[in-house]
Amino acid sequence: MTTPTITGCVVAKDEADLLRGCVADLSRFCDEVIFVDNKSSDDSARAARSLGAKVEPNTRFEWEQVRNMGLDAATGTWICLLDADERLIDGAAVRAAVAQAPDHVSGYILPRLDYFGSARWASTQTLPRLVRNDPRIRYEGSFHASVRAAAERVGELVHLYAPIHHLDGLLPKTAEKRQRNESYLLGILEKDPDDPKALFHLGVEYIALGWYDKARAALEESLRSGLFMPSRVELGLAYLSLREGDVQGACETARKGIESCVQARSKVCFLAVLAEVAVRRGDRAEALRLCEESLALWPKSADMRLNVAHLIGERDPYAVVEHLEAALRLNPWLGNPLIYRQTDWVNPHDFAVSFVSGVDRFDLAMARFCELAGRSSEVRRWRAFSQRVEEEAEKDLPLGALHGVRP
Question: Residue limits of the Glycosyltransferase 2-like domain (predicted)?
Answer without folding.
Answer: 9-124
